[in-house]
Amino acid sequence: MPMSRGTVVKKAFIKSLPVMAAYVILGMGFGILMTDRGYGPVWSIVCSVFIFAGSMQYVTADMLAASVSPLHAAVMTLMVNARHLFYGISMIGKYRDMGPAKPYLVFGLTDETYSLLCDGDYPDGRKNARLYCLLVTLFDQCYWITGTVLGALIGAVLPFDSTGIDFSMTALFVTVFVEQWLSSKEHRAALTGIGAAALCLVVFGESDFLIPAMLLITLLLSLSYRGKGGRNG
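Given the sequence above, the corresponding structure tokens read:
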């Protein structure tokens, strides 16, 4: 028997609860950081509605304060969010039949939303799957916006030292990595990522290693899985 719409909503909400716990806190950090840089709650909310890019929003706060050029901002955005190109490639098949919801799903595909949707554990039926993906993405963005509003209001009322707040996104990425490591018996991809990132960090330096690391990871994993497929065939 197909799931009812209410059941799909409940399933999506329960699935997104771990992200809520992280995004409300991280969104608060961003709101506080924006206030510390001299931007009011409206600016924080606008960024969370129209950018919604997690770590890039933290970088945006500093770029706005420094009045960087649009070209510099574009290059920095590409470097920080280059990993999303690879997320998107892996979701092409899953998002193929999403209809009018597809543009928003593409826009809202953050690291954490990807981790919730990449397992393919969707409700039966095309409409239910579309609604489920849409709700998970929407819930996650609403959690971030809620945290942003709370952080902006707290930052406007209370004096707050924002030193170290931008490290919270790094802490989240480490948490997501550990969770994926513990939930999987196959660690080849994780070890490949660590090794490639470490190598590129040494070779290219901390400001330029991200894109080469992503390209190297993609190459190594492609060769690895192709070789495994060839042996199995």
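The chain has a mean pLDDT of 81. Try to locate this feature in the token string yourself.
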